[in-house]
Write a structure and sequence with these properties.
The complex is a heterodimer of chains A (about 550) and B (about 120). The relative contact order of chain A is 0.11. Chain A is built from 16 helices and two strands. Chain A has one domain: Cytochrome C Oxidase, Chain A, CATH 1.20.210. In chain A, helix 3 packs across helix 13, helix 6 runs antiparallel to helix 8 and helix 11 runs antiparallel to helix 13. With about 550 residues, chain A is an all-alpha fold. Chain B is built from four helices and no strands. The chains are: A mainly alpha (about 550), B mainly alpha (about 120). Chains A and B meet through helix 1, helix 4, helix 5, helix 6 and helix 7 of A and helix 1, helix 2 and helix 3 of B.
Chain lengths: ~550, ~120
Amino acid sequence: MGVEAGTAVAGRAPAGGLLAWIATTDHKRIALRMAVVAFGFFLIGGIFALVMRSELADPGLQLVGRDTYNQLFTMHGSTMVFLVLTPLALALGTYIVPLQVGAADIAAPRVTLAGHWLVLAGGLTMYSSFLTDHGAGKAGWTAYYPLSGNSATPGTGMDLWVVGVILVGVGLTLVAGCLLATIVRLRAPQMTMLRLPVFSWTMLATVLMVVMSVPVLAVGMALLLADRLGASVYESSGGPIAYQHLFWFFGHPAVYIMFFPFLGITADVVATFARKRFTGYRPLIVALIAFTGLSMSVWAHHMFTTDQVANKYFSLTSTALVVAAGTEYFAIIATLIGGSILLRTPMLFALGFFLQFLIGGLSGVIVASPPLDYHAHDSYFVVAHFHYTLFAGSLFAGFAAAYYWFPKWTGLMLRDSLGKVQFALMVVGTNLTFFPMFLLGYDGMPRRVADYAPEDGFTDLNRLSTLGSFLIALGVAAFLWNLILAYRRPVPAGDDPWEGHSLEWATSSPPPRYNFRSLPPITSHAPLLDRRLEAKPPPKRGRRRVAR
Amino acid sequence: MRIAAIWIGALALWIGALSLLLWLWTGAELAPALLTGAAVALAAIAAFVAILPDETAGPRTLAESSLPTVVVVIGLAMMVNGLTFGLFLILIGAEVAALGLAGLARQLWLERGRRG
């Protein structure tokens, strides 16, 4: 027997028009706006990347000068971290978590709305810096002091970059706080903590890291702004190191903020398309808690070469991450084993995340070791490493989420065949772009440079990398075409096209204003799978037991 | 007590243990202080979650849209940008934020009235 969905008044017609577009209090609509804004910034940040890759295809400066190049890589990194992946992760959580926990709404929807607008305002502020005399911020997305100080990087553009980051930081913290409150306070009566779907657990870990780390970034940036305005905050001898601590105390957890939700998506997608209950749920939850704690305590591995941090401690904690990460990987592998695997587009992207993130993770073990990091630091090896984690990893899972939940968001299907074309283009493009960077970095090509000499021997690998980046662009174009097709020639999706396991598939597509008319019984982290298995007779002996 | 508080508390303890290890490992103060601060913040969240009262069921009176919220954010963004552009923008932003807050107060008052 199901339970009534709290006090939900299902089916109330949502408000339309411009007002609803900009000021809705429906968590689903806010989340979709957040995702659309993040995708818009992704396209702009991607164009910056293409310009940079084109510039690097040959020695010499052909397209842009050094100053413009500095602005481009600063804004590319800032865009992807502050305005794309982190907001996208929180957007997915804002839409899906209330549904997965059986809540009628998100906690404090107005605060979520305010958070979304602060992120957008921060992004626009950062981008407005292009209109200033000295151009946009150009001290890298890390804005290391004293490079980001007023004497090294004068001008209003850098000030606006700092102001933008502060606004984004406050906005992200507000959205995360609402999600945290939703998970701890608004779960359906039968939804115990150990019945939360994996994605909701990963979002819980994510929002806890956001509320612990992002305020520190906001403080660090506020101090940097004060410094730039003449307060001399970071002027002392330990000032630059203090800045790096404040920045990386956010900056490294941010990597996991941009990883955990996408791991959760992968877990949900793999279980659904292996048509089997997620295996190793409890070990994964314990590993996630361990991982969250460790990921808060590894930040200074970015500072090994400063010789100002406890290298052994941070090397130990960084290396220990592989135990927690390995547990999560083995849980996903165990889910695949014995499953009746269906290779639809969401599954392909989830597997792409799974395999490619592994390359990023294992190269992370190399830079977690101080002697090896001394060689790789500030080289293209590091660029390859974090692009394998964030692009080849998280963004692939982002596309898995898009294909998986698009039917829930819109009631329409994306074309599977076009999705597979996109996947192929992106897998080839991604590895062609980023794998040569490992070799370039190992050979000594420094990062953040607009040019290199012909005799350096970097040209061929750079050309390969540039070719790969344009294949990625083609893949993204295929996704845009798929979106257009979905609306111009709609294919209705139905409420549960994938035979999903968690509660978001128990309501209509798209869901009503307050999410559910009634909830099914919640007996595990896969209540819909439970219901399906209950309704079917037990399988005959000798036949593989699958969920459909 | 909410079971979620136990999970968050466990994480706070784990980060606290890691920060203790860092205090023992290093002579510097900022890094272990940051980690200890995170553990304390998390412990405070766990404590808050533990004592939080259950949400009371009732009719949903939430407005379908909240323009005043957006106005408050625009005002705040103008104020922060004013740190770069000058006092005039801080003052204009403060006025816009005040206007938004007034609208928000009115909206909340109307919602409370609908709840009776």
